[in-house]
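Hey, can you fold this one?
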Amino acid sequence: MIARRPVSLAVQTLLATATGLPVGRGRVPAGPTPGSQASPPYYVLYLLPTTLHGPPLADENADATFIYQVTSVSGPKPGVSGSSGSIDQVEWMADKARDAVLARDPGTGLWLRPLTVPGVKNTGRSLDIEPGESSAPDDAIITYVQRFRFDLTPA
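Sure. Predicted structure:
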């Protein structure tokens, strides 16, 4: 059976490395000082239901499909009164996330950014659903939701 935690950590690392933006797992990412939170822009990675397929669960060779929600968060600039998140910034972030996960090398067809998980081979990736943008005008936050599907098999 494929363990979820190593895959989650690998997805978080892939997204953070490829975009250069902080990524929190299920919450706002940590900020630069202990106990602080990152300021926008950042991503929040949510774990969604898992699908197992193939042999029975007790079999060590079962394949798995994990779906992750990536929420792009655009918000006010710290210390800038009257600033707020913007549609332009959150769409730019969504484009970066889509590229981070799905971009392929045109010559080889391989993903530009491998998902590195010991004992696991990533056999497929796709955009599962992209509901898009929503805003919270009271706190000047704009978010954009994408869900990515990762098909995995034991290596």
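The mean pLDDT is 89. Let me know if you want another pass with a different chain boundary.
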